[in-house]
Amino acid sequence: MTLTRGKRVQAGVIAALGAPLIEALGSSYDWRERGREHLDRVVASGRQPIFAFWHGRILSATLYFRDRGIIVITSENFDGEWIARIIRRFGFGTARGSTSRGGVRALVQLRRDMSEGRPAAFTVDGPRGPAGVAQAGAIWLAGATGNPLVPFHIESSSHWTLKSWDRHQIPKPWSNVAIAIGAPIDIADTEQGTVDAGRQELEQVLSRLQEQALGMITR
How far apart are CA 202 and CA 43, in angstroms? Predict the structure, then answer.
């Protein structure tokens, strides 16, 4: 999709206003973490993590994993444009595409980026849901590259919930924000049966991580 000049300008304005606001919110959060050793073990092994999480936690994930050179897929439409511009300000790279448009091209780019030593991240139920149902992209990439999925979930003690399909959560200022990181998931290959089994396992793991993260903020 080619955006008009006016839409590109509008996306730039949104990014210019939104990034400082997100920065200010993030500076007030009190982070709690569990499972960081899983990520450290992947990095120490010389492999690159493929982060896997639900779409409704993009904002908090952007703040926690900032400035690591992580490559993420963003849609080629207007929303994808301003999101891409914001996350680049937080040290992320982008591969443009989605499950409905340009997805194969974006996955090829991600595979190339990972071969050059860059980690990747997926909102596994994005870009349009249904919420809580993992799509195949992250699992396929893990099977194609030999790099492991690293699932995580984030919850906050106080937040706004948007009326969107993903029930996006925005932690309020000075909230406790908890991240639970799961053990790496290896995917043996890209065969359909392997990918389907990986999707089911990932959904189960993310459900358990959600329970862990909620427990961390209610203690």
Answer: 20
Helix axes 137-145, 192-218, angle to 10 degrees: 110
Q: pLDDT tens, 57-77? A: 999 999 999 999 999 988 888
* Separation of alpha carbons 142 and 137, rounded Å: 9
**What pTM did the predictor assign?**
0.93
Instruction: Dig out the tokens for 184 from the structure.
Output: 């790496």
* Helix 103-115 / helix 137-145 crossing angle, nearest 10 deg: 40
Mean of pLDDT values over 78-84? 88
Round to whole Å and give the CA distance between 93 and 89. 9
Tokens 């392997």 locate to: 194
Q: Which domains does the chain have, with CATH numbers?
A: 5-218 (3.40.1130.10)
Neighbour count for residue 63 (Cβ, 10 Å): 19
What confidence tens digit (pLDDT) does each residue in 142-158 have?
999 999 999 999 999 99
What's the rounded mean pLDDT across residues 117-139? 92
Q: What are phi and psi of 126, to 5 degrees?
A: -90, 170
Query: What are the C-alpha distances in Å from 40 to residues 43, 45, 184?
Result: 5, 9, 11
